[in-house]
Amino acid sequence: MSKKQLRQDLRQLRGQITSAQRLRWSNAISHNLKQGFPELQNCCVGGYWPHAGEYDPLPLMQWLSTHGATLALPKVLTSSEPLEFVAWWLGAPMRNDAYGIPVPDKSPIVAVDAVLIPMLGFDAGGFRLGYGSGYFDRTLVSLTPRPLTIGIAFEVLRVPTVFPQSHDIAMDYIVTEQAIFYRQQGKLVTLSPEECANMTR
């Protein structure tokens, strides 16, 4: 199977998730993130504006902001450049980018300590399947020091392999509604939120 076909299949599968399922699973993901990553409350967290049935991180980000975190959203510059992370807060002036995704308007560029990354799919090696543009891979390569990467997807979107290539970057952690996964020696290790919190303190 090609990556193109895999993306089509996973888009279709995600589109079949009911609103009730998505809400229930999203709440469970938010719980795992809150309980498993307490350090997010003390750093600058890069999130994303959800679309096409992705997990919606905005309620979590608002919760983080009330517990000490500063927030950022990615901004596309051109199709070949890394993303920029710019400051975001509840009520920040927004505009739509070329893809129709809201981005902060005239907010300053910030350095992120951790990034929540949406995944169309993921595999047992901790690799993420995105939409094929390569934005996040280019961005992570460009950032020094590299931020903590937390990939987010629903468990049903796990596949045996996403056919990773040499330029693809595996996630440090993956969070689904069922568990938190830590990448260790090229494989995903399942953690409870409590175990994860103890690792990341």
In short:
The protein has 201 residues and is of the alpha/beta class. The chain has five helices and twelve strands.
Structure description:
There is one protein chain. With 201 residues, the chain is α/β, with parallel strands linked by helices. It has helices spanning 3-15, 19-36, 58-66, 135-142, 193-200; strands at 44-46, 70-75, 84-88, 94-96, 102-104, 114-118, 121-122, 128-129, 148-152, 173-175, 180-184, 187-191. α2 (19-36) packs across α5 (193-200). The chain starts with a helix and ends with a helix. The model has no long low-confidence stretch (mean pLDDT 94).
Task: Write out key terms for the chains shown.
Rossmann fold, 8-stranded mixed beta sheet, alpha/beta, 201 residues, 5 helices, two-stranded antiparallel sheet
